[in-house]
Design a protein that fits this description.
233 residues, alpha+beta, 4-stranded mixed beta sheet, 11 helices, 45% helix, globular
Length: 233
């Protein structure tokens, strides 16, 4: 079902899901679609596009809705992977196991916009704040044009296979406010560092400390916009 849906064969995907989901439900194997396991997906986010598709096709709807968090009731598109962000040192991003290469960014401003959003966590940033940081030399009209182009470029980097017309997932918009979507599984090295740097387990603490591979967003051209985090680290 996963392979068929990935290749665009929706009827085939629906056929296999109609066979598999009742068996999964009957035998209590729902965890295979929710957690990392030896028999399931390494990244549990992989199953979300399947579950959203099954809900759309009304395949085992009660069971599927029980597997999908209530927050996903209005979500119609999910890219199917965790986003990993390294902020200690130069920005690095992974889509699941795929490291985003330099040439994939296409625009350096897209990298910089990602730094600003990631540095804010799940807090909102206004379009004006983002434009002032990225294009301080532009007038408002020129900055707005550039903002639209770069935002589209960043969305393309984070979810290159997003179907035409589908809502963006990793970046959430509310009028002129933007943030990284708290529903997305976005793993930041700083979060793991914070949670484990004082661990009683010396091995875990060492792993946390080893994450520190350079200054916070090293090379960021607008450190003043990240001053609180920069001073802390």
């Amino acid at each position: 079902a996963y392979t068929a849906l990935k290749q665009g064969f929706e009827n085939t995907a629906a056929f296999y899901l109609a066979k598999a989901l009742p068996v999964i439900n009957e035998h209590g194997f729902g965890y295979l679609l929710q957690k990392e396991s030896m028999l399931g997906f390494k990244d549990p986010q992989t199953a979300l596009p399947l579950l959203i598709f099954a809900r759309e096709k009304e395949i085992e709807p009660d069971f599927v809705n029980s597997l999908l968090a209530s927050d996903f009731s209005d979500v119609t598109y999910h890219p199917g992977y965790t986003l990993w962000v390294r902020s200690f040192g130069p920005l690095e991003v992974w889509r699941g196991n795929h490291r985003v290469r330099s040439k994939e960014w296409k625009r350096d401003k897209a990298r910089q916009m990602m730094m600003l959003l990631a540095g804010r966590g799940d807090g909102w940033l206004s379009r004006d704040v983002l434009m002032d940081a990225l294009w301080p030399e532009h007038d408002s009209e020129a900055a707005q044009r550039s903002f639209k182009v770069v935002l589209n470029a960043l969305n393309q980097v984070l979810a290159p296979e997003r179907p035409r017309g589908a809502e963006t997932f990793f970046i959430e918009r509310r009028q002129n406010l933007y943030r990284l979507n708290p529903l997305a599984n976005i793993q930041m090295d700083t979060d793991w560092f914070e949670a484990n740097k004082d661990s009683d387990d010396i091995n875990i603490m060492k792993e946390a400390i080893d994450l520190y591979r350079g200054r916070y967003f090293e090379g960021c051209p607008f450190q003043e916009n990240l001053i609180a985090e920069e001073q802390y680290y």
